[in-house]
Design brief:
It contains no helices and eleven strands. The chain is an all-beta fold and 115 residues long. The protein is globular and about 40 Å long. The model has no long low-confidence stretch (mean pLDDT 97).
Length: 115
């Protein structure tokens, strides 16, 4: 059974930091493209950051320079370090793993940015 389990969300003040984690089980993690998506109320889900199996990252323009995606294949975990958070970063953040025909999602973790 495949599971992607996110953690690390919460409430943070503008300018603060959070680190999200997503631990996978039931997949050959090292083969997967791993991504972090987010969805705010009334908005479409968007890709925030992704990381290929070779370790090549990509980011949506709005988070470049503030967010960093990384992975630890030994721990089957992908991270999203989020710095200088803004109110517009508030959303439910979802972990995604893709390889060939397989596409899996986590349950999401809430990030709230508010004073």
């Amino acid at each position: 059974q495949v599971q992607l389990v996110e953690s690390g969300g919460g409430l943070v003040q503008p300018g603060g930091s959070l680190r999200l984690s997503c631990t996978a089980s039931g997949i050959i993690f090292s083969k997967y493209y791993m991504g972090w998506y987010r969805q705010a109320p009334g908005k479409r889900r968007e890709l925030v950051a992704g990381l290929t199996s070779d370790g090549v990252p990509n980011y949506v323009d709005s988070v470049k320079g503030r967010f960093t995606i990384s992975r630890d294949n030994a721990e089957n975990t992908v991270y999203l370090q989020m710095n200088s958070l803004k109110p517009e970063d508030a959303a439910v953040y979802y972990c995604n793993g893709r390889y060939d025909i397989w596409n899996y999602w986590g349950q999401g973790t809430q990030v709230t940015v508010s004073a």
